[in-house]
Amino acid sequence: ICEICDVVETGKIYNLGVTRTNKGLRLKHGNNERIFRLEYVSNNEISDFEFQRWREAMIKQGISLPTLDDLEKKMKEIEESKHYVYNNNDITQIVQEKKRFRKAPINYAVTKNELLKEIEIAKDENDIERETELRKRLTEMEERASELDRKRSENISVMA
């Protein structure tokens, strides 16, 4: 059992179910505080043994246990967060985050078009470094698309 102190970005991007992320939790157990990737954090119910171990650690380290008032406040916060209405900035940030960790674009044609536009902008602004980086990304994306196309073709010929 730990107290969640903060949500942070870790140095590693990892798979969490079907999602890729670099999020971690800063967790506190007694006076000990450490960051854990979400893949290592359990969301199972707390056992009596785990509760007793946490309680003993808190008492041994002289940390006061949460009161019923503390628990009621936290439950109210959780209930309010369930009804949170996302604004445009929240949605934009979520979309950018998902795009950032995606291994491959959802639509190669749209992504290629966006990259070509960005290359033109970089060229117009005389930003050679950015243009080079964008061209590299475009080449990598085209190679990945060609590889996928080749695999699809192989699968089709095997079925025929």
TrEMBL record:
Residues 1-83 form the Plus3 domain. One of its GO terms (cellular component) is Cdc73/Paf1 complex. One of its GO terms (molecular function) is RNA polymerase II C-terminal domain phosphoserine binding. It holds the Pfam family Plus-3. PROSITE patterns: PLUS3 (PS51360). It comes from the Eukaryota. Coiled coil: none annotated. The keyword Transcription applies. InterPro entries: Plus-3_dom (IPR004343), Plus3-like_sf (IPR036128). It is found in: Nucleus. Residues 139-154 have a biased composition (Basic and acidic residues). Keywords: Nucleus, Transcription, Transcription regulation. Residues 139-160 are annotated as: Disordered. This is Plus3 domain-containing protein.
